[in-house]
């Protein structure tokens, strides 16, 4: 049951027809009802009716009511009828930009929200599905709840309501003329606006931790054996996997036994579904099945008799049971007799695909997509102890409460990939922060019949830093995206990309908790954090990934082995280009180049982030946590953990505060004692501290005692292990460095990687080559300092000298001009 009553202490003014309720210092509900009957029932958008006490003042003078908070002043002429420009106005207070608002004003600066589907769109242009038969118009992205104007009006006057039954159900608003508005005043404090929105529209639920792993999906007539072989190959190639998506061929699709809609397992492909699902459970995989509910329940379905009896129908009549979303009896029967038995066998959640009409047959304004999302999600909330999860289309404002989104059948083009970063981050403006896309594209563009493997890799790299990482494709052998079908180079990049997704999972999950707490999505536009910088609105392709990272996706092919990306680095702190090891100054726009295995990920200088090491899935609560320090300053982070898949996370969770301070030659890292509790919480955990862009240490202590460490010169990384650590204890780690160390955070790590690869490739161009001493030493610099830390400064300085002289050294090697040109180009050589 949803809350039905208003918090009367926040009602600032009420008369026979009008009521003003303060939701927060920046948000007010404004109601006018001709019949005088205010609406207390929750609506589809505004599900919360009880608000925390707010501070406000009310003045009644000369027939006008004036309501003042710290953010706005509202004036309303008493007994003057419905809200108009002549009887209602709101002025901003203590916010920038200032505004004077009255009914009818246009919100010209709306920053947009999201759209239901990518079906038929190449990028943001509608070209149709397969036949280039679209109108070639831009995607009509819906308005969001944020605006550069600093205010937003949400008109809920015609919005559907929930009733007061135990399982809240749709009901129409009482007939009669009325206005039900929500006004938000926030200036450019977009984060405050999002949190205020959750106060009346509800929070974004935290998905189970496994949702942040890798999802395998493909439109393919898989059999039990083929899926077993598939999962075995993921193991054999050491590629993590958490979610197995099975498209519609799990059920019969041939006429007379099935179709788009179906609920009976195809026993030719799956002889024993229950045993198949248990096999997947044994591999710690979550399973979702595709549904197209629009066709109702046909008499040939396995559980037709149970459903007919539920509906009070005679099963022998063989009449189809039509789908009707607003029919509570039908929906309850559908869930209890059709879906629940499969859930008990091992189906974890459902993929709601598109087929149904836009609106309900009985309630003409009831959006079928919106309602289906609510029904399935709320049913899982009521009938499970595990977290609800749903994989579905966007249904409209308020659907942020039912994640995850499915964006439909996208085209496999660079243009679509270029559009997706904006599409993802802008959806956060309606709190729809968990879009899931068909990585690599679902279908070929007109005239294309072969998967562009470079495009696929770049799409996967984008997916690793997206809300959900899920591949999918049309039913075509040419669209096979299994990583092992690609050559060794591409397989290696794909595997490392998926593994990096798992590496960053503790950080991602911590940021997802922030989405629940504050309404700030994992992928968000730059203007949330930098609202007064014009570049934050201009650079639409890049986005914040949580609080500490900027992602500037590669969205065009490589030229001569390098892709070029332009990125804006906001002022306030320097930024560390993770994949090349380059510390870049803030407050500038730079153009950077990347090889296939590099990606534009920028981390705040000095950040300290929680990562995993080598994990196979995200089920465990006791994995080693590697607190990773990025160079360039001091940092702190509050690491979040919980059970991972229960519904008690709202109150049962734990946090560990970690901080680092650099003072001349000493780095101090503090790991605080864990605070909080949850079911299944480990008492001890293996901690590790990884310091990137680091020289070898002279001395390391943990809580004052000498401690061992390791140094990897190829990655310029210092690692300190704290095994079997009592999480209730605090740990202070001090690292002392030599005072005379060469600069290494200017891209040296990237130079090591690129040169190592080019040295190897040169041997395949000239198998008899014997590198001169200077070049041989360059190739092995990282490994040499790994073996002998004391040689660090000398080897690095020698590498730099030789790097600047590389053209001359290649001539000394007696390479021909083509090989010299190739080698310098392959590493993007530039003199220091």
Automatic annotation (TrEMBL):
<dbReference type="GO" id="GO:0030246">
    <property type="term" value="F:carbohydrate binding"/>
</dbReference>
<comment type="similarity">
    <text>Belongs to the glycosyl hydrolase 31 family.</text>
</comment>
<feature type="domain" description="Glycoside hydrolase family 31 TIM barrel">
    <location>
        <begin position="205"/>
        <end position="511"/>
    </location>
</feature>
<dbReference type="Pfam" id="PF17137">
    <property type="entry name" value="DUF5110"/>
</dbReference>
<dbReference type="GO" id="GO:0004553">
    <property type="term" value="F:hydrolase activity, hydrolyzing O-glycosyl compounds"/>
</dbReference>
<dbReference type="GO" id="GO:0005975">
    <property type="term" value="P:carbohydrate metabolic process"/>
</dbReference>
<keyword id="KW-0378">Hydrolase</keyword>
<dbReference type="InterPro" id="IPR033403">
    <property type="entry name" value="DUF5110"/>
</dbReference>
<dbReference type="InterPro" id="IPR000322">
    <property type="entry name" value="Glyco_hydro_31_TIM"/>
</dbReference>
<dbReference type="InterPro" id="IPR048395">
    <property type="entry name" value="Glyco_hydro_31_C"/>
</dbReference>
<keyword id="KW-0326">Glycosidase</keyword>
<dbReference type="Pfam" id="PF21365">
    <property type="entry name" value="Glyco_hydro_31_3rd"/>
</dbReference>
<dbReference type="InterPro" id="IPR017853">
    <property type="entry name" value="GH"/>
</dbReference>
<feature type="domain" description="Glycosyl hydrolase family 31 C-terminal">
    <location>
        <begin position="519"/>
        <end position="609"/>
    </location>
</feature>
<dbReference type="InterPro" id="IPR051816">
    <property type="entry name" value="Glycosyl_Hydrolase_31"/>
</dbReference>
<feature type="domain" description="DUF5110">
    <location>
        <begin position="627"/>
        <end position="693"/>
    </location>
</feature>
<dbReference type="InterPro" id="IPR011013">
    <property type="entry name" value="Gal_mutarotase_sf_dom"/>
</dbReference>
<dbReference type="InterPro" id="IPR013780">
    <property type="entry name" value="Glyco_hydro_b"/>
</dbReference>
<dbReference type="Pfam" id="PF01055">
    <property type="entry name" value="Glyco_hydro_31_2nd"/>
</dbReference>
<protein>
    <submittedName>
        <fullName>DUF5110 domain-containing protein</fullName>
    </submittedName>
</protein>
């Amino acid at each position: 049951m949803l809350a039905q009553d208003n918090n009367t202490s926040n009602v600032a003014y009420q008369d026979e027809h009008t009521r003003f309720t303060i939701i927060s210092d920046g948000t007010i509900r404004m109601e006018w009802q001709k019949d005088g009957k205010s609406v207390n029932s929750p609506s589809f958008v505004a599900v919360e009716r009880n608000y925390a006490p707010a501070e406000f003042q009310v003045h009644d003078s000369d027939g006008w009511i004036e309501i003042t908070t710290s953010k706005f002043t509202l004036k309303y002429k008493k007994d003057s009828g419905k809200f108009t420009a002549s009887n209602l106005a709101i002025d901003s207070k203590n916010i920038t930009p200032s505004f004077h608002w009255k009914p009818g004003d246009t919100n010209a600066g709306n920053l947009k929200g999201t759209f239901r589907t990518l079906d038929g769109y190449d990028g943001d242009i509608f070209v149709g599905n397969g036949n280039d038969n679209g109108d070639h118009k831009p995607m009509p992205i819906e308005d969001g709840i944020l605006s550069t104007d600093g205010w937003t009006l949400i008109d809920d006057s015609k919005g559907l309501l929930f009733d007061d039954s135990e399982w809240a159900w749709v009901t129409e608003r009482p007939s009669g003329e009325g206005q039900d508005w929500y006004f938000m005043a926030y200036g450019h404090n977009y984060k405050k606006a999002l949190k205020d929105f959750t106060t009346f529209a509800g929070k974004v639920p935290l998905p189970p931790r496994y949702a942040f792993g890798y999802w395998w999906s493909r439109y393919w007539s898989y059999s039990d054996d083929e899926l077993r072989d598939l999962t075995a190959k993921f193991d054999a190639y050491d590629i993590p996997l958490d979610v197995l998506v099975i498209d519609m061929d799990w059920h019969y699709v041939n006429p007379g036994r099935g179709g788009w809609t179906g609920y009976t397992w195809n026993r030719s492909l799956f002889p024993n579904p229950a045993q198949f699902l248990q096999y997947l459970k044994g591999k710690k995989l979550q399973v979702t099945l595709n549904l197209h509910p629009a066709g109702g329940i046909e008499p040939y379905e396995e559980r037709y008799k149970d459903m007919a009896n539920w509906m009070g129908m005679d099963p022998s009549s063989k009449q189809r049971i039509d789908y009707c979303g607003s029919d509570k009896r039908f929906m309850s029967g559908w869930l209890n007799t059709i879906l629940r038995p499969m859930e008990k066998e091992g189906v974890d959640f459902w993929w709601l695909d598109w087929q149904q009409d836009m609106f309900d047959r009985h309630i003409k304004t009831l959006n079928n997509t919106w309602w289906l999302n609510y029904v399935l999600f709320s049913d899982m909330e009521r009938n499970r102890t595990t977290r609800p999860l749903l994989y579905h289309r966007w249904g409209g404002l308020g659907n942020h409460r039912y994640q995850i989104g499915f964006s439909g059948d996208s085209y496999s083009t660079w243009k679509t990939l270029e559009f997706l970063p904006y599409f993802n981050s802008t959806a956060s403006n309606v709190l729809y922060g968990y879009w899931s896309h068909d990585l690599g594209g679902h279908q070929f563009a007109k005239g294309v019949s072969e998967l562009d493997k470079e495009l696929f890799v770049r799409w996967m790299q984008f997916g690793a830093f997206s809300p959900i990482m899920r591949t999918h494709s049309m039913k075509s052998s040419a669209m096979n995206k299994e990583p092992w079908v690609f050559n060794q180079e591409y397989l290696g990049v794909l595997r490392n990309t998926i593994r990096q997704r798992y590496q960053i999972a503790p950080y991602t999950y911590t940021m997802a908790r922030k989405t629940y707490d504050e309404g700030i999505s994992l992928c968000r536009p730059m203007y949330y954090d930098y609202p007064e910088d014009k570049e934050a609105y201009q650079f639409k392709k890049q986005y914040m990934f949580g609080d500490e990272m900027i992602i500037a996706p590669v969205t065009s092919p490589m030229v001569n082995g390098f892709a070029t990306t332009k990125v804006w680095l906001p002022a306030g702190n320097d930024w560390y280009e993770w994949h090349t090891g380059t510390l870049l100054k803030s407050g500038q726009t730079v153009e950077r180049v990347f090889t296939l295995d590099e990606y534009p990920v920028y981390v705040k200088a000095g950040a300290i982030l929680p990562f995993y090491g080598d994990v196979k899935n995200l089920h465990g609560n006791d994995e080693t946590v590697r607190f990773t320090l990025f160079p360039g300053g001091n940092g702190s982070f509050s690491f979040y953990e919980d059970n991972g898949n229960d519904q008690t996370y709202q109150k049962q969770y734990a946090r560990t505060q970690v901080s680092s301070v650099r003072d001349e030659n000493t780095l101090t890292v503090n790991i605080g004692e864990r605070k909080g509790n949850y079911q299944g919480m480990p008492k001890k955990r293996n901690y590790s501290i990884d310091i990137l862009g680091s020289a070898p240490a002279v001395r390391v202590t943990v809580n004052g005692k000498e401690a061992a460490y390791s140094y990897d010169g190829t990655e310029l990384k210092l690692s300190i292990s704290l095994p079997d650590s009592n999480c209730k204890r605090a740990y202070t780690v001090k690292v002392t460095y030599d005072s005379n160390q060469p600069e290494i955070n200017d891209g040296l790590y990237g130079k090591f990687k690129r040169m190592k690869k080019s040295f190897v490739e040169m041997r395949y161009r000239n198998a008899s080559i014997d590198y001169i001493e200077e070049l041989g030493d360059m190739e092995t610099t990282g490994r040499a300092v790994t073996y002998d830390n004391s040689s660090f400064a000398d080897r690095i300085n020698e590498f730099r000298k030789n790097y600047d002289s590389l053209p001359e050294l290649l001539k000394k090697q007696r390479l021909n001009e083509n090989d010299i040109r190739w080698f310098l180009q392959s590493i993007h050589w530039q003199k220091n």
